[in-house]
Each structure stands twice: as C-alpha cells, then as structure tokens.
C-alpha cells in the first residue's frame, strides 16, 4: 500500500479574509501556530516566548511618578519572586524595572524587601497561595496580608496569561530593564515539553510577570502625593505641575 501526504496552509483556503487570518493568528497559542496555519505537525516543544531579547529589553531610565506601578508576586518556600512594572498609558507600554528573587526565607523577610520598593504599590499574588504552605501549613496569602502587603488575587489562567505577555513582548509594549538578570534568564529558558505543556521549572518570575500583566496593571497606582510634596520641598520639580 502506498501513502501520500498532502498539507495545506490557510492561504489555500479562499474563504478566509486577511482580517480573519489575523484574528485567528492572535487567538492561537504560539506553539500551535505552525500547525494551525501551515499544516506542519508539531508536538509543541520549544520556547514559549520566541522573541529576540533586543525587542523587549531596554536600558534603565527615570520614569515619571504619575505612571502607575504594580507588581506580580509568586510565593513559596523554595523560591519567592516578584517583578515590578510601570505603565506608560499614552503608549500602552509596560516597563519592568525591578525584581526580587529569593529562596528559603520567612515571609517577613520577603515582605520587608517588597515593601522597601514602595509599600503603597499593589501586588497581584498567585491565588493558589491561599492554600497551605509546604513549610508549616500556614496560608501564605494571609501571611503576607498580615505583613501589610497590599495584595489582590491574580488571574491565573496560564494560557491566556502567556498569550497576553507574548502579545506585549512581540509588539514592543512590554519592556524589561537589562538590570533584571534573573527575569531575563528565566525568559530565555521558559519552554514547553514534547507534549506542549509548560515545564514548571525555574519559572517563578515568569509566573509573576503573568500576574502583573493579567491583573496587576488594572490595580496600578501612582506615587502618593506626599512623595510629590517631599520632592517639591527638597527643590525638585513636581512631576505633576512641572514647577
């Protein structure tokens, strides 16, 4: 018996318009795009964010106090990770400017480090942290709220979050300061296995980035007005008035 394989791309389908193809492209996970659009069989392994680092990295810079800030937080005993972002609404661009990556420490240690970056900033925490910790059965989300972190539960839809992050990365609307070496290292290694499943290793900052993009941004806050006043009395220009 002889066999013959014929593949077809969506360009061979005459009823699809250009807009429909774009809509379909945007809705398909990155690892499935070759299979869906070109008929190329794929097991789904490979980089989750196949975007060149030069597209999404940038040098650190001073940003205005009136740009809202938020962070994503992934907690655990082995690793606790957080990443802070500031949102330029005019260009709809998010700049990740700070990270925290530390393992095997008490929640109070992590909380102090997080609050040092601005205790008024809202964080989006993994909702699974409402369960018991591996250390002693405490509910980690409750622990961190008792330690005066301002937290909301993040949207933890994994594929939707990956899609949202990838859209911003590839469009240049999510930038990461080059000083965030742990985050950049995770992004380079973040991948799927041969079955298309996300490999859950060394991904704490990648998870925190999803929480920031999916939930943190909508809870972003600008620096308290007291900070403006302090700058003003110290002789600096107000970022609001320019005087």
Please outline what is shown here:
The protein is α/β, with parallel strands linked by helices and 243 residues long. It is built from 9 helices and 9 strands. A 7-stranded mixed beta sheet has the order 2-8-5-4-3-6-7. A two-stranded antiparallel sheet has the order 1-9.
What does this structure look like?
- By secondary structure, the protein is α/β, with parallel strands linked by helices.
- It has a domain at 54-219: Nucleotidyltransferase, domain 5, CATH 3.30.420.
- The protein contains nine helices and nine strands.
- Helix 6 crosses helix 8.
- The chain starts with 17 loop residues before the first helix and ends in a 10-residue tail after the last helix.
The whole-angstrom Rg is 21 Å
Helix content: 25-40%
Give the DSSP E fraction (strand runs of 2 or more residues).
15-25%
Mean model confidence by pLDDT: 85
Instruction: Provide the CATH top-level class of the domain at 54-219.
Output: Alpha Beta
Q: How far from one another are the termini? A: 84 Å
What structural class results from the helix and strand content?
alpha/beta
Chain-wise SSE layout:
Elements: H1 18-27, H2 33-38, E1 46-47, H3 53-56, E2 57-58, E3 69-74, E4 80-88, E5 93-102, H4 107-115, E6 122-125, H5 140-146, E7 151-153, H6 158-171, E8 174-177, H7 181-189, E9 191-192, H8 204-214, H9 225-233
Parallel strand pairs: 2-8, 3-6, 5-8, 6-7
Antiparallel strand pairs: 1-9, 3-4, 4-5
Helix pairs in contact: 6-8
């Amino acid at each position: 018996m002889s066999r013959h394989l014929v593949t077809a791309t969506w360009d061979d389908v005459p009823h699809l318009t250009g807009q429909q193809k774009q809509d379909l492209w945007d809705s398909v996970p990155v690892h499935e795009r070759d299979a869906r659009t070109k008929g190329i069989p794929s097991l789904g392994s490979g980089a989750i964010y196949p975007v060149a680092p030069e597209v999404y990295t940038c040098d650190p810079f001073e940003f205005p106090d009136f740009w809202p800030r938020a962070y994503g937080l992934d907690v655990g005993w082995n690793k606790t990770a957080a990443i802070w972002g500031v949102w330029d609404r005019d260009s709809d661009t998010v700049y990740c400017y700070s990270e925290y990556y530390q393992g095997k420490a008490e929640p109070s240690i992590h909380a102090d480090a997080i609050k040092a970056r601005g205790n008024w900033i809202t964080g989006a925490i993994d909702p699974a942290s409402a369960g018991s910790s591996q250390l002693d059965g405490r509910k980690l989300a409750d622990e961190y709220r008792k330690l005066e972190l301002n937290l909301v539960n993040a949207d933890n839809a994994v594929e939707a979050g990956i899609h949202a992050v990838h859209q911003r990365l590839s469009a240049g609307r999510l930038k990461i300061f080059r000083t965030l070496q742990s985050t950049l290292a995770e992004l380079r290694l973040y991948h799927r296995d041969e079955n298309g499943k996300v490999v859950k290793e060394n991904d704490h900052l990648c998870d925190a980035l999803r929480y920031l993009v999916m939930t943190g941004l909508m809870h972003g806050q600008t620096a308290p007005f007291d900070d403006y006043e302090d700058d003003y009395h110290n002789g600096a220009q107000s970022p609001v008035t320019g005087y």
